[in-house]
Write a structure and sequence with these properties.
This protein is α+β, with helices and mostly antiparallel strands. Among the domains are: 1-39 and 171-204, no CATH class; 42-73 and 85-168, Lambda Exonuclease, Chain A (Alpha-Beta Complex), CATH 3.90.320. Helices cover 41% and strands 14% of the residues. The protein has 9 helices and 9 strands. A 5-stranded mixed beta sheet has the order 1-4-5-6-7.
Length: 312
């Protein structure tokens, strides 16, 4: 069970840096107890599975020893701000904990895996040029632990291994703590979600509409509605033109599989694989006794439909 509060995997999402979670996902996790809709579960499990391997590679490259530290670490003044670090780094055989169990090593280690498609987000090894979400996480961990630096070992595309160094930055540390406290006080403790920025985030918070509830459009909303109407009109005209061109080309091709120019295929017109579907209307009519057992009712989805928006 993760403690109730803001952790290292939350801070990047709160700041809008995470590609897997939005601020509304963090809010839903804290207030509703999960179900926020983040898409990082498989990513996290994969990273956890490879964490020991990444740590061993770090030890092989650096010569340092790493030590697991599963204990929850908390901010000295704000106990609801916590951290779970991957490893503590012991150099030259030195201890990582003092006699009272406090952290005495200046270095911690975070182990990551990343897709080869994200390689452009990573700079040269041993710099702090890492994705913003990981930079925030490392800065958060040095803040909570009091360590001077965080080493971030990453396996890129299962083929390249790099180590980065994020030194403790006092100014950044203060800003992260302020952002976490603000999020906690303004959203978690009040139960008021952060402002969603995408339709998917809105649907996570408000799956159905309140019948009869209205919101008054401001000048910006009216401008966006007019712009949407113009774009939709243009889209319809383009789709009509596209369909006319398809009609002309298919009339030219007749029973030909492809149309070519100097041996190069320009387009194909082929039959797809046969599809199979259940005739629901017939099933309900002829076998009503079993039709109901196999029908699945899908949840209704909200659609945005333009009404009386003038072009003026």
């Amino acid at each position: 069970m993760r403690p109730w509060g803001i952790g290292g995997s939350d801070i990047g999402a709160i700041l809008g840096f995470s590609p897997y979670r939005a601020p509304v996902d963090v809010w839903a996790d804290k207030v509703r107890g999960g179900g926020g809709g983040g898409s990082d579960e498989i990513h996290l499990r994969y990273g956890q599975h490879l964490e020991p391997f990444v740590a061993k590679e770090y030890e092989r490259i650096t010569g340092h020893m790493t030590h697991e530290h599963p204990k929850t670490l908390r901010h000295p003044r704000h106990p609801h701000l916590f951290a779970h670090v991957d490893r503590l780094v012991g150099r030259e055989g030195r201890a990582v904990l003092d006699a009272e169990g406090g952290i005495c090593t200046p270095t911690l280690l975070e182990c990551k895996t990343a897709s080869a498609f994200s390689a452009d987000q990573w700079g040269q090894a041993w710099t702090d040029q890492v994705p913003h979400a990981y930079l925030a996480q490392c800065a958060w961990y040095t803040t909570i632990t009091g360590c001077d630096e965080a080493h971030l070992a990453v396996l890129l595309g299962n083929s390249e291994f790099r180590v980065y160094r994020v030194g403790h930055d006092r100014v950044l540390s203060e800003r992260l703590v302020d952002a976490a406290l603000c999020f906690w006080d303004e959203h978690v403790m009040t139960g008021i979600p952060p402002q969603p920025t995408t339709r998917a985030e809105v649907l996570r918070l408000y799956q159905t509409e309140v019948v009869g509830l209205e919101v008054e459009a401001d000048d910006e909303a009216i401008r966006q509605l007019r712009r949407l109407r113009r774009i939709q009109g243009l889209t319809k005209r383009l789709e009509h033109s596209s369909e006319q061109i398809k009609q002309q080309l298919t009339a030219l091709m007749k029973d030909a599989e492809r149309i070519c120019s100097q041996g190069r295929t320009l387009a194909t017109w082929r039959s797809g694989s046969p599809s199979h579907r259940v005739d629901v209307a017939r099933l309900r009519k002829e076998r009503p006794d079993i039709a109901g057992e196999y029908l699945i009712e899908s949840a209704p989805t909200r659609r945005l439909v333009l009404g009386g928006v003038s072009d003026a």
